[in-house]
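The authors assume throughout that readers already know how a fold can be written as discrete tokens. The format is easy to grasp once an entry is in front of the reader. For illustration, here is how one protein appears when written out as sequence plus structure tokens:
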Amino acid sequence: CVAAGRTRTPREDEWCLRTCYGKRGPESVAPSRRVRPTSQLRGRPPSPSQLLPSAMLRFVLMVNKQGQTRLAQYYEHMVMDERCALEAEVIRKCLARTETQCSFFEYRGYKVVYRRYASLFFIVGVEGEDENELAILEFIHALVETLDRYFENVCELDIMFNLEKAHFILDEMVMNGCIIETNKNNILAPVHLLDKATSS
């Protein structure tokens, strides 16, 4: 309302409010029509903390009993050396835990949630104090059930020889670290379409 470099007087502030909102005041305007924050008007990009939710998946691993990684998906940038060190330590900790111990623990700022199915360990790393570990366990179970339906009793060899399909299914469930779908029919629909397109 006023040229840059000048401080508005109370009268000018009142005039701006009436011009932008009318006599009803700013509280009566729908949220989508309110004036954007000054930082956005000046062209400043929002900070990562404004874009990312407080809790997100950071990595998903599928590991066998020998500690060999069969699938790894990361949702944050990490150099290869750091990634290898993180994987080795997380896998070692998961394999060393007994069945009577809790299925989640904290490591290097991550909450690590894991679950064993036959010879495979499914490991998920999340970041954020508000993350629900039991919900992550349910996500792991939904992922296993979806893989089981697609591969018809999934095993380690199915993951090894159909790695791109396993990644495809995981990508249908998680986007940028956020869980977006857990319905098995919705997840597998595009996978079946791809199978039909490639077979024809």
In short: The helical segments are 10-21, 38-41, 48-51, 80-96, 133-151, 156-161, 163-173, 184-199. The first strand starts at residue 56 and ends at 64. The beta strands are 56-64, 69-74, 104-107, 110-117, 120-127, 174-175, 178-179. The CA atoms of residues 38 and 44 lie 9 Å apart.
